[in-house]
Amino acid sequence: MKIKAVVRILLAAGAVTIAFAVPTRAEPVNIVGFGDSLMAGYQLAPADAFPVKLEDALIAKGNEVTIANAGVSGDTTSGGLSRLDWSVPDSADAVILELGANDALRGISPEKTRENLDAMISALKDRGMEVLLVGMLAPPNMGDAYADLFNGIYPDLAEKHDLILYPFFLDGVAAEKGLDIGDGMHPNAEGVDVMVTRFLPFAERLLERLEAGGATKQ
Predict the structure, then answer these.
(1) 3-state SS of 161-179?
(2) Domains of the chain by range and CATH?
């Protein structure tokens, strides 16, 4: 009986040791949605903005996460680069980087857009943050030559920096009737729901990367 009791004690002690050895997150994962009006939720109620609805969707699946909305309507990649340091706090674990649509609408050189995005990605990675890159497509009226240069920016940078890439932020919403606010450009609340549903698996991959890389910043 004494031997069995000792064995039980040792097993219990081992279980306690194993339990303490398993890393746990003391705080939720902190993500920043950094982008333009598509991220900010142009003409939508705050609760209908993409970062809010994505956070809700991830929490509903059992994830502990917060997603801050750092979208600014009208922002270009140049504007994003200039405000990056103060818009993304050091407490952030990851950034969903969504910029470039306004560059294309204004006909800004794709090389400049690439340069700005590259600089932002490098700066965020230097700060120890994961980046999920959100792609955009040039509008048809810009012509094939411009589109070829612009559309290739996102997959090229994703490969260069080993990033998760969501190819087109408005996938499933662009040119779909009833899913925009009436301007043919910005999603309405239902459109955001479609975007979140399609984006969710990529956000979950981001969380997996963060989990594999260790605990969140304290």
Answers:
(1) HCCEEECCCCCCCCCCCCC
(2) 29-212 (3.40.50.1110)
